[in-house]
Amino acid sequence: MPGAIHAILGENGAGKSTLMKLIYGVETPDEGTITWMGEATQIASPAAARRLGIGMVFQHFSLFETLTVVENVSLLVPGNKKDLAERILKLGREFGLEVDPLAHVYALSVGERQRVEIIRCLMVDPKLLILDEPTSVLPPQAVNQLFETLRRLSKRGVSILFISHKLEEIRSVCTHATILRSGKITGNVTPKDFDAHVLATMMIGRDMPHLSPAEPVKRGEKQLELTGLSLAADDPFGVSLEDISLHVHAGEILGIAGVSGNGQAELAAVISGETPLPKMMQGRIAMHRHEVGALNPAARRKLGFAFVPEDRLGQGAVPELSLVKNAILTAYLQGMVQRGMIRRGRAETFARDCIAENDVRTPGPEAEAGSLSGGNLQKFIIGRELMLEPKLLFLNQPTWGVDIGAATAIRRRLIALRNAGCAILVISEDMEDLFALTDYMQVLSKGRLSARFTTSETAPEDIGRAMIGASGDAA
Amino acid sequence: MTAIEYILAGMLAAATPFLLAALGELVAERSGVLNLGVEGIMALGAAVGFITVYSGGGHAMGFVFGGLSGAALSLVFAFVVLGLHANQVATGLAIGIMGLGLSAYLGKPFESFTVTGVGKIVVPGVVDLPLVGGLFRQDIVVWLSLIFTPALWYVLKHTKLGLLLRAVGENPHAASAIGYPVLLIRLCAVAFGGLMAGIAGAYASTIYTPLWADGMIAGRGWIAVALVVFGTWMVGRVFLGACLFGAVSLGGIAAQTVGLAIPSQLLASMPYVVTIIVLGIISSNRRLVKLNGIASLGEPFEK
């Protein structure tokens, strides 16, 4: 319908993205037809979709980092660069999508990149704009700005398909909603008429698991401390860390909020020990009262440190290896290796226990790690680290791409671990996660860490303000 | 003629086989395909080019057939890596060995035969300048290369075609998502690389040293591959690199004529030593390599 903002609502893996790929011609349907402007149509390719007037903003952006904004646009839109640059500025002013046309994409923030994607779609004057999880990467203030843009577009008669699993957003901006579960439509509603709880029930097919922040427990000894740590990035796409200070005690969970690309990867590599620190900085990081600046990841693990990296397939687990072999990779000190030989029995028992205790859905311990769904593999990886009984656990984006059920299970396990006296540090983009999980929060923005917030006394807007940082750039 | 005059006069011609092959490889790598078969493709181009000229086809046809044979062999490579998604490094090495074998087989009846080269085209006036005058007395292929190099730079930097090539090399999935035929673009880039390597080989065997001897390419293809990295995938730097190697390889000969008591084998190894040193220096600047590097280089692309 012209001017409608239509939501496609569903959990991870419900088939939202697949549906959108069909509409945009990236994949072709096995059967059935797509009706466009009253006519049955076959959309064979993205180019065909664009000719029909369909534009798409991808979840993982399809921009080219080493090219400038205007070069990226010119790959889709005919015209010389000078005219295109002018049109980019004009559209930017009109719809609140300001961005420098001559900037290189790698230098832009995530919010600015999204604006480039939207502008690129708008330049070809679309009748339908598809946005795949557009808010998952944005700080709260940028989300409002995006919604303002969408409302302006819909007033001009552009129809918008808005894919999301975030209920409040859909209620605030969408005029219609279609709910998907396991590839089937389970509801067609006007989202404003239902409250978030009812929508959630339609989306996951059962009652929304409710999770309230856990009662704080007595904090113990300091397990991790960073004092004024700085590290210049040697990668042009990287972020330099500046004067990072944080500390985590036993029995508390500290969350690092912020949009990815603000130093998260760099900070994670420093804490895990993957990035060697220069000599003068080595005294700035301590675990369990030991200076660990000069220790590699294996040596840090021996001190009682465990780490769940962001990249599940590749860093957290080796996709081609079985779960048993993946278990050996970090748990080999649990009696699995004797005189250099692997004791398979021990490893297998360990993997079996890990699967059973963490409700990992898999055919068995010999299954390849890469064959598990994201949520199940994440449960296995976190379970493996928990079984090492760490004194300090560090997780980077633990619930990214994990469905609600698995995310809830993971949060419960982490809180139980904290109550047992473990110190936990979590880096996450997901505000819901952080508010449900943490005792304290700090915000990482442009390589700098904010002061400490006490979660129970903080509102999401406060965190949002800290994400934007002192520079006032709303992206 | 002093040693410096000698080097300046011969540098561009010595650089041309490196330059042409490296520019072709640069285009292929920009699209994300690493073709390590350049050495063999050059050898095949050299053999076919030589046979054509020796059989009376003339130099122009020598380049046409030399280039086409190179393109044909690179299409075999393209079929295996793009069509069957095979490992590019292993396939490139195999194609290189195949090219060397083919050139030896085809060239066997012509071993040690010679053909006549081509005359030099002189820029009047400046050619009589002291010291640098020799730079302006070059054969036609050198002159054409000097026109071709900036033209390629312009195409890569300022046209939609160049933009597309960079886009496909950086992020083939995104390029495919917005509707560009990634594999076709890569196929064309690889074929162009083969064509240029074939022409480079033909230049070496019919003009630069107009004779056929098995193994006459003698590692020039490998240097060309190294030059592309050396030049951080930028046309201007690849050109400078090629000139440097041309100069260094002539420097060996010049040193001998001056009577320096350095073993000739050591002098002959100088271009390779310089390659290693310069690659080391370039690679130590990770920032430079990362900014200009090609993100998807060597990775197969499947939808």
Output the keywords.
heterodimer, A: 475 residues, alpha/beta, Rossmann fold, seven-stranded mixed beta sheet, six-stranded mixed beta sheet, 21 strands, globular, disordered C terminus, B: 303 residues, mainly alpha, ABC transporter involved in vitamin B12 uptake, BtuC, 2 strands, 2% strand
Descriptive account of the structure:
The complex is a heterodimer of chains A (475) and B (303). With 475 residues, chain A is α/β, with parallel strands linked by helices. Helices cover 35% and strands 20% of the residues of chain A. Chain A has helices at residues 16-23, 46-52, 69-74, 81-95, 110-122, 140-155, 167-173, 196-204, 264-272, 297-302, 323-331, 344-357, 374-386, 404-419, 431-437, 460-468, and strands spanning 5-9, 34-36, 39-41, 54-57, 128-132, 159-164, 176-181, 184-189, 222-231, 241-249, 253-257, 285-287, 290-291, 305-308, 337-338, 341-342, 392-396, 423-427, 440-445, 448-449, 453-454. With 303 residues, chain B is an all-alpha fold. Chain B has one domain (3-292): ABC transporter involved in vitamin B12 uptake, BtuC. Chain B has a two-stranded antiparallel sheet. In chain B, helix 2 (38-54) crosses helix 8 and helix 9 (220-230) packs parallel to helix 12. The A-B interface holds A 26, 45-47, 50, 58, 61-67, 71, 74-76, 234-237 and B 160, 163-164, 166-167, 170-171, 173-175, 177-180, 286-287, 290-291, 295.
Number of domains of chain A: 2
Mind describing the biggest β-sheet of chain A?
7 strands, mixed
CATH-derived architecture of chain B: Orthogonal Bundle
Number of strands of chain B: 2
| Mean pLDDT rating of chain A | 83
- Shape verdict of chain A: globular
Major sheet characteristics of chain B: 2 strands, antiparallel
